[in-house]
Amino acid sequence: ALLLYGRLIVEKRRFRWDRWCQLCFWAAFVIYAFFVLGIMFLGGRGHRDPGESLWEYIRFSVNPIPFKTIGNYIYLLRHHAINRALVIRNICGNLALFFPMGIFLPTLFMKMRKLWRTALSVFGIVLGAECLQILLRRGIFDIDDLILNLTGAVAGYFCWKLFFKIYCKMR
User: In this predicted model, what pLDDT tens digit does every residue of 103-135 receive, in sequence order?
Assistant: First the structure.
């Protein structure tokens, strides 16, 4: 994958795209997008009480307080009241889920080669997905998920940037 990616960043710092490599990256992006949608909207998430109104569902399924869930995890871990694997899966999973987005956006879209644009785009995507999860009753809206997803995407962006700089110096 890195060799394919290296092939994408070619010629005169203007990033002339080889059609085959571009097609492969777009295909990988589409597969990744379906994977993310499947994780966020399919499976046994949400569905509290079928007779519950949307407002009641929202009241019990929204966490607008930053780091509340993460803080609860730390507290419960200290008191051995939660499975460590569950905490690691949730935190690392949220970080890893949008890590590729931080690579795909600047690779596929020239305008996304600035950190603030990539971060703002991912913020909008994740915020929209979190809101949609509530409206469709397919999960909860947790600001900590948004923070972790955005952090993962920014980490992906910095990996893309580092690889880009190394590759350009080698040419």
Answer: 999 999 999 999 999 999 999 999 999 999 988
Q: State the pTM of this model.
A: 0.83
Q: Helix crossing, 101-108 with 143-170: angle to 10°?
A: 50
Pairwise CA distance, residues 2 & 12, whole Å: 20
Q: How far is CA 148 from CA 3, 154, 155, in A?
A: 29, 10, 10
| DSSP per position, the chain | -HHHHHHHS-IIIIIPPPHHHHHHHHHHHHHHHHHHHHHHHSSS-----TTS-HHHHHHHHEE-STTHHHHHHHHHHHTT-S-HHHHHHHHHHHHHHTTTHHHHHHHH-GGGGSHHHHHHHHHHHHHHHHHHHHHTTSS-EEHHHHHHHHHHHHHHHHHHHHHHHHHHHH-
